[in-house]
Amino acid sequence: MHETTILLIEVGALLLLLGLLGRLSRRVGVSPIPLYLLAGLAFGHGGLLPLNASEEFFAVGAEIGVILLLVMLGLEYSANELVGNLRSAAPAGLIDAVFNALPGFAFALLLGWGWVAAVVLAGVTWVSSSGVIAKVLGDLGRVGNRETPVILSVLVIEDLAMALYLPLVTALLAGVGLVKGGFALAVAVLTVVVVLAVAIRYGHLISTALSAKDPEALLLGVLGLTLLVAGLAAKLQVSAAVGAFLVGIALSGPVAHHATELLSPLRDLFAAVFFVFFGLVTNPLDMPPVLLPALLLAATTMATKVATGYLAARRAGIAEPGRWRAGLALTPRGEFSIVIAGLAVSAVYPVEPKLAALATAYVLITVVTGPLLARLPDTPWFKQWLRQRAAATRAAAAQVRVGD
User: Fold this and answer.
1) Quick check: 94 and 315 in contact, CB under 8 A?
2) Residue 368 belongs to a domain with what CATH number?
3) Could you tell me which residue ranges the Cation/H+ exchanger transmembrane domain spans (predicted)?
4) Measured in Å, how far apart are the chain's first and last C-alpha atoms?
């Protein structure tokens, strides 16, 4: 009974603190993710006041948090939309992977961390934060802008790529070797293809079985189906996160719409628990030695992400201001980066011990500076710079015509 009492006190106090931090983040106009990470660092191993009784609770909650993040992400797209975006945005997705995964991979090798850690860090630097970016676009009133579909296409490609990347990383971190890792990837590819085919052809039947008219039954049904499929996927070494993502894609119509509304509060709760748990298992004393590498990595990969968005928007025929808005909006990393680093931390054969601290510092830097950078195109001095740049381009073009 005493242990249960301590558990309730710790969990209640920390959740209350997260609520206050979430309100503070909305007031100052930043993402709550860095504040949740800092709260975990403050009360975890090596923190100001370690919470021992509630660590197991937060570990389970963190697993559920990842699953809910991914199923909610899947609910945003139908199978047809996902396939259509894949076809149209594939070149931009390839640029994104080359520009942003390779720096992380090379950086880990330069630090002498080995190729498995390099594969993990490549994923950390590759994927932008869909949640943070969606909030920034809404806050800045850019949802209807011409460059916004380009941004969303890049995010969709990243989400789909994660469905293939996560099983491979999970297999590598389990120490099964490259051959078995390739087999796990093949299973993942087959699973994704089969689920997409079933969702396109029979998705309406799955949605019909889960009535949107009864909120309680819908909530229990979708949550139960998601956890069941996620568990089975994990059993098949495909990754629980991927299983949850595919469940979200398979649901459509009113069921998907109402499920999004019902699951959103649960997603917010357990996502906060997930970020806190990652902070809890990261010793803040490990962060100062990796702060400079994290700054260098963040500066490099934010620049490459800006280039990704700029080139993707230019390919879509967007004017230069929109290209910069697209590139700068894509810079924050968040939930997926922490998910990937979390897999490394909880691996059967843990990789580089400094990886979690580096990933935490890296996400903190990008998730704080990213939304600020996204506001740059709206500032007077940036608009003036763009006008001067356009004038210089026109003058250079006129000189070329005169020379001809």
Assistant:
1) no
2) 1.20.1530.20
3) 15-374
4) 89
